[in-house]
Each structure stands twice: as structure tokens, then as C-alpha cells.
Amino acid sequence: MSLQLQMLGTGSAFAKRYYNNNGLLSIDRFTLLIDCGITAPQALHHLNKPMEDIDAVLITHIHGDHVGGLEELAFRMKYVHGRKPVLYVPEPLAQPLWENTLKGGLGQDGIEKLEDAFTVHLLREGETAALAPGLALEIMRTPHIPGKNSYSLYINDEIFYSADMIFQPKLLSELVYQRGCRKILHEVQLTGRGEVHTTLEELLSLPANIRDKIYLMHYGDEMEAFIEQAQEMEFLRQHEVYTL
Ligand SMILES: [Zn+2]
Ligand SMILES: [Zn+2]
User: What average pLDDT does this structure show over 176-184?
Assistant: First the structure.
């Protein structure tokens, strides 16, 4: 039983060559969609993957490139497949996700709250959630935008999947040296100052034995020009299937 990851997209919020940074994490016949952004329905269509094959969706934070596809997912599952999608959501995000993002589109008679549109599982920091045999994860709150909660994932106690986040070298060191983290799937901003993201330059300042565990995602359209500069850090390619 091995974990597989296929990114629906690996692009930053403004990327146009790449779909939104959303990932399909699979083990045996269970498939979790990590984030469901604006382009997720289009990317699934491109890959010829029916939405009904997704067993659950997990949200890391409330930005369009991570939640903008949830309305279509919920409506399609309701009207085409006759069931509610399973939604894993960090507890503090559940209310704002409904009130501030989804209610305007999904709200109607019979759909008055998040639980009417999704089968909701709340995730709490410090607790490990078992999603399927062989797949457990915990959420870790990581800084992204002031006043906005964002949660990275620690999968099977050995794989870190970053949400959009500001550089956290101490966390990355602790994960590798104290918790035996084997792989780090990390967002990256290739140019400019990393005010709400982690820059390539910042990641390059990490020791080589952390860098060689890092796979880069959530990047801009100019990615190809940075392959050499990224040294031992590999860029994840959208739609390619990786064994984690
Ligand atoms: Zn993003
Ligand atoms: Zn974001």
C-alpha cells in the first residue's frame, strides 16, 4: 500500500500555464482531493477523472485557488450523483467557509448550512485524523496572511504538505530532525519578496539535507527558467503521478 500524489495543478494563484495547486492523494481505492480551487473542475475534466471518484476533499485555507471549485463539486455531486461530498475542514475555517465563501452560491431552500451541502468532518490541531486505511494526517497552522487561518498537513507522520505559507525554517528543521519527516511538498514563490509566501531564495538557505527532501509546488508560470537555480529541490509537475 503506497501513497500516490497527482497534482491537478501546481500553479500559484495567478498562474495561467498551470492549474491551481490542488492535489489528488490516493491510497488503494481511496482518493482525497487536497484543496478544490477555481480550476479544479476543469483540471479533473482535462484528466478525464470523474468527480464522483473523489472520496473526500480537504481544505487548507480560504482563497479562491483552494476553495473556488467547491460550489461546482457540491452541486454536481447533489444533482448528478445524488450524494453529498465528504469535506474535511479545519474547525476554525468551517464557519467562514460557509458564511463568507459558499453561502451566496450554494445557499437555497434545503441547503442552509455547510452540513446540508457536505458531509463535514472537522479537523483539530494536535489530533490525528484517520481518513482511510493507511492514510492519517494532522493539521498544522502555518502563517500565510495576517488575520487568516491556514493549515499545512503532516501526512502519515512522515510527509509534510505545505499550505500557502510564509517561510518557517524552524518548523521544517523540527519536522526533519525530530519527527523523521521524509518528504516536504512545499509551496514556492520564484520572484519578488515573500510577504505571504516562501521564496525560492529562502528555501535555498536551508541545509542540503533538508533541501533534498523538498518538492516544489504552487509556482508561477516562469518555473522552467528556475530548474537549475532550485538545485536539489525538484519541481512537482502537474498531472504526473508520484509515489510518496
Ligand atoms: Zn494558493
Ligand atoms: Zn493562499
Answer: 98
CA 243, distance to chain mean position in Å, is: 17
Q: Rounded to the nearest whole angstrom, what is the distance from the C-alpha of residue 166 to the centroid of ligand 2?
A: 10
Q: What is the arithmetic mean of pLDDT over 89-101?
A: 98
How far away, in angstroms, is 64 Cα from ligand 2 center?
Answer: 8
231 sits in which H/E element: none
pLDDT at 1 over 80: no
| Confidence category of residue 194, pLDDT binned at 50, 70, 90 | confident
Write out the E strands in the chain.
Answer: 4-7, 23-27, 30-34, 56-58, 86-90, 119-123, 129-132, 135-141, 151-155, 159-161, 183-187, 214-217, 234-235, 241-243
How, if at all, do strands 183-187 and 234-235 pair?
unpaired
**Residue 34 and residue 235 in contact, taking contact as beta carbons nearer than 8 Å:** no
Over range 64-82, report the average pLDDT: 97
Domains and CATH numbers, the chain: 4-127+134-243 (3.60.15.10)
- Looking at the CA of 11, name the nearest ligand: 1
